[in-house]
Amino acid sequence: MKIPYLDLKDVTALHQAEIQQAVSEVVGSGWYLQGRALQQFEQHYAAYIGTRFCVGVANGLDALTLTLRAYKEMGRLHEGDQVLVPANTFIATVLAVTENQLIPVFVDVDADTLDLNLESLESSITSKTKALMLVHLYGRCTYNERIKTLCETHNLLLIEDNAQAHGCIYKSAQPTLNCLHSTVNYKTGSLGHAACHSFYPGKNLGALGDGGAVTTNDEALAQMICSMGNYGFSEKYVATYKGRNSRLDEVQAAVLDVKLNYLDQENQRRIDIARTYYKYIKNENARLPKLMDNGDNVYHIFPVFTSHRDQLKQHLQDRGIGTLIHYPIPPHLQGCYKEYNNLSLPVTERLAKEELSLPLNPTMTDEEVMYVVETLNSQF
Ligand SMILES: Cc1ncc(COP(=O)(O)O)c(C=O)c1O
């Protein structure tokens, strides 16, 4: 059996006819940027996430960068302010901070839950700390009441990086930091002051190219991001800010609007596959993340951790199973961040040496899932 880590052709094939119809309508419309498809998707996605506003941008990194940039223009952040970031994240979260001349303060994660280590988080806060980037890595919600209290107590902006967790639900009887209405099922992307989404093709909600968005209840922020992504124009050809070009185009918006209708169903399939993995994987060399099966995980990535990563990867590959590593080098150890290379963030550094992602996507059949399980279990 051959099971690639992810075959995007199969993912697209799930809704091929509808996607082709939507693309062909855009092609025939003669209107390719900032038109009806974008407006519709922004409305639908804001309603889905549960925020007042959604602003489409060109990709997830731009969503993060423009959000921080907009907060600077609005006087909420200033050059040299400190921004808390999880050490265990994809580099884009950190690039957005440094691109804005803000200072990333790396916080290590808990080895069991992979959440931010709350003690380290608290002790990292100084009078210069102004924001927290909360990354729902691997598709699991990492927001909780303590994070909310910490943000309230220290007056921190809470910015979610929801690139990996579209459709993920946070259940709580308590209102979240910045919620519109009290409910018990909050979506990630609505929990803080702003949230940044990537629609990179491999994401749970993926475009046929690059795409991203910011969701927020803050009208001034939404307008500022809109303007920043459109040359800084406050109206056509009137540049109030030094902006850039970062737009979600009509083709991608139309594709995303189709795929949004199936997101919950596909996330449910991911959850079912993850449950099978949790139930049947028994390999004493492969540690699974602590199971917190309370519906707060949409399993964008299913990581296992092993000190025999090369052997396990090879064992799976020899039997036709593709895997990936998320991520082999943590941001603070990257060559572009020499100034942070001497930091010690031991849990993150160990995870980077041990992480291996198993295939998990809605196109997988039950047989394929069990083949992954059996192959993994047969390693030793
Ligand atoms: C956690 C996280 N943040 C940000 C990004 C950046 O998104 P994009 O690739 O759309 O720029 C990604 C994905 O690539 C991601 O996984």
Instruction: Look at the structure and give the mean pLDDT.
Output: 96
Kindly report the name of the CATH homologous superfamily of the largest domain: Type I PLP-dependent aspartate aminotransferase-like (Major domain)
Q: What is the CATH level 1 assignment of the largest domain?
A: Alpha Beta
**What bound compounds does this protein have?**
pyridoxal-5'-phosphate
Q: Number of helical segments?
A: 13
Largest sheet: 7 strands, mixed
Features:
13 helices, 380 residues, Aspartate Aminotransferase, domain 1, two-stranded antiparallel sheet, binds pyridoxal-5'-phosphate, seven-stranded mixed sheet, Aspartate Aminotransferase, domain 2, alpha/beta
Walk me through what this model shows:
It is globular, with a radius of gyration of 21 Å. A 7-stranded mixed sheet has the order 1-9-8-5-4-2-3, with helices on both faces. It has a two-stranded antiparallel sheet with strand order 6-7. A two-stranded antiparallel sheet has the order 10-11. It has 380 residues and is α/β, with parallel strands linked by helices. It has helices spanning 8-13, 16-29, 36-49, 60-73, 91-99, 118-124, 145-154, 219-228, 250-260, 263-280, 309-318, 346-354, 366-377, and strands at residues 53-57, 82-86, 103-107, 129-135, 157-161, 169-171, 185-187, 194-198, 212-216, 233-235, 238-239, 302-305, 355-358. The longest helix is centred in the last third of the chain and has 18 residues, at 263-280. Helix content is 38%, strand content 15%. The protein folds into 2 domains: 8-260, Aspartate Aminotransferase, domain 2 (3-Layer(aba) Sandwich), CATH 3.40.640.10; 263-377, Aspartate Aminotransferase, domain 1 (Alpha-Beta Complex), CATH 3.90.1150. Bound molecules: pyridoxal-5'-phosphate. Residues 59-61, 89-90, 92-93, 135, 161, 163-164, 198, 200, 210, 212 line the site of pyridoxal-5'-phosphate (PLP).
